[in-house]
């Protein structure tokens, strides 16, 4: 049985008191807004989260999934989730696919907006990187059918360094460049060093402090640079504040939804996964950075 420490139990309540609005309106807007006017439907942001295995959606992305499902009406967001393998290496594929469905029921993603793909070129394999073209080909039909505007996925380090995770960003980034593609933006989940990965409920506090300090520093330097350039009659460059990570943090209720969602993956709940749920920062917050492609520059 999982033994939660007092910090693990009390921190959600303290955090919800200190920062009741974790998933700020600005963060959600930055994550979902089109870079330019969306010719397909300027009033709706269609966001596709792409994962490698059933359980990724709960283990790594729960703060984002909960934030976006909660914001669907207020921000005109449609969230879709595509898992590119059945997770056959970690158990019975049919069982894992069903667990994925149950997890997303908890997280609030409608059954018509989620897929588990079973493709020969995209097999769950701890020793193999996936081919970028195979990833592009697998996801393109979903993008074309649903007119996806934003894609979310792992960065090139894949949080856990699993090669399937690490492969996704390269293949998905190609979708922005395809002729006629509706995709405007790609965001990667930031992987952090091991010493930051297991701070548990302390991670939001540290992230909050770091964000405030860095934004304050950037604001001061930006103001000074703009003043100098204005005096020289030179147009100011793009503000560095716009390139800071998008941070979505769970309050205690959203955190608990992530825990309950992960508990649906019963075939995967070995003892070390319980430790992960108790201490992983990714159950508490997600930090996103936008991928720069030639079209998005």
TrEMBL record:
GO molecular function: N-acetylglucosaminylphosphatidylinositol deacetylase activity
Signal sequence residues: 1-16
Pfam families per UniProt: PIG-L (PF02585)
GO cellular component: endoplasmic reticulum; membrane
EC number assigned by the record: 3.5.1.89
Classification via InterPro entries: GlcNAc_PI_deacetylase-related, LmbE-like_dom_sf
Keyword terms of this UniProt record: Signal
Residues that span the membrane, as ranges: none
Enzyme class at the top of the EC tree: hydrolase
GO biological process: GPI anchor biosynthetic process
Family statement: Belongs to the PIGL family.
The name this protein goes by in its record: N-acetylglucosaminylphosphatidylinositol deacetylase
UniProt source species: Pterulicium gracile
């Amino acid at each position: 049985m999982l033994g939660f420490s007092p910090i693990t139990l009390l921190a959600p309540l303290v955090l919800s008191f200190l920062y009741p609005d974790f998933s700020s309106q600005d963060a959600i807007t930055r994550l979902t807004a089109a870079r330019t006017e969306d010719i397909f439907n300027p009033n709706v942001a269609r966001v596709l989260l792409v994962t490698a295995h059933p359980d990724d959606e709960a283990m790594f992305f729960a703060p984002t999934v909960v934030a976006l499902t909660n914001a669907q009406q207020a921000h005109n967001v449609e969230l879709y989730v595509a898992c590119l393998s059945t997770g056959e290496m970690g158990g019975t594929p049919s069982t894992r696919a069903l667990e994925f469905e149950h997890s997303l029921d908890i997280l609030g993603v409608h059954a018509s907006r989620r897929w588990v793909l079973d493709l020969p070129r995209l097999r769950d394999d701890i020793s193999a990187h996936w081919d970028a073209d195979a990833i592009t080909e697998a996801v393109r039909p979903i993008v074309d059918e649903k007119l996806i505007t934003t894609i979310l996925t792992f960065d090139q380090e894949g949080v856990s360094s699993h090669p399937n995770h690490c492969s996704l960003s390269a293949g998905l980034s190609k979708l922005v460049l395809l002729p006629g593609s509706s995709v405007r933006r790609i965001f990667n989940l930031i992987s952090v060093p091991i010493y930051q990965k297991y701070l548990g409920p302390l991670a939001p506090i540290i992230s909050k402090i770091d964000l405030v300090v860095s934004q304050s520093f950037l604001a001061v330097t930006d103001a000074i640079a703009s003043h100098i350039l204005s005096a020289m009659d030179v147009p100011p460059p793009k503000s560095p504040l716009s390139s800071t990570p998008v941070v979505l943090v769970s309050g205690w209720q959203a955190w608990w939804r992530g825990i309950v969602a992960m508990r649906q993956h019963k075939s995967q709940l070995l003892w070390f996964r319980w430790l992960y749920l108790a201490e992983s920062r990714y159950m508490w917050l997600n930090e996103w950075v936008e991928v720069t492609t030639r079209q998005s520059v």
